[in-house]
């Protein structure tokens, strides 16, 4: 908990010193007494800090093992994150078991479903990977999407050392229920979630984020996961 609060405080201080203003849109609608598998969009390195200024409750995030070697920050990272060595099948399995244990203890898990991002900013989400959907179905834990709207403006994906002052908006979307879904439903759930988040992002780009909660709620009501 202490290390987690340090990550929160450090992220807020970093943004303050850089002139970056976090704004969390529709977060008030989320019941954070529940645990979720939180699935943010991924466009820039800055989102490693944005998750700590947007998600108000204790969570663990899945991160690359290489970051553990970073001086000082690596120690904190190792404490508050579940690290994964993607080159090792056994290491990936161990990370999966750790995430499962954290969910069983009532914590939320944050996983970037795209896994990576492009050096050239664009408005399309990269293809989602299976991990978070496998975990959601296995643990019957709702998926909570977040769209980071300003990441590439605050830190261009090809310029990790350069941050630009301005608004840094995170938009919370209604959670996706996985109740009664089974392993065979994983492809449909993954496709559905990607379409849902992309449709919401497209709506925001055209109309702004204020009305996207209603749009997203209607999308969930009118579209069935198993029909994706």
Commentary on this structure:
The protein has 228 residues and is an alpha/beta fold. It has a single domain (2-227), classed as Glycerol-3-phosphate (1)-acyltransferase, CATH 3.40.1130.10. Helices cover 42% and strands 16% of the residues. It has helices spanning 2-18, 47-54, 73-80, 89-104, 131-139, 151-154, 186-207, 212-222; strands spanning 20-25, 37-40, 59-64, 81-84, 108-110, 143-148, 166-172. The protein has a seven-stranded mixed β-sheet with strand order 1-7-6-2-5-3-4, with helices on both faces. Helix 3 links the parallel strand 3 (59-64) and strand 4 (81-84). The longest helix has 22 residues, at 186-207. The radius of gyration is 17 Å and the shape is globular. The termini are far apart.
The ordered H/E elements are HEEHEHEHEHEHEHH
How confident is the prediction overall: mean pLDDT?
90
Ends apart, CA distance between termini:
39 Å
- According to CATH, what is the class? Alpha Beta
Principal-axis shape equals globular
What is the level-2 CATH architecture name? 3-Layer(aba) Sandwich
Tell me about the biggest sheet? Answer: 7 strands, mixed
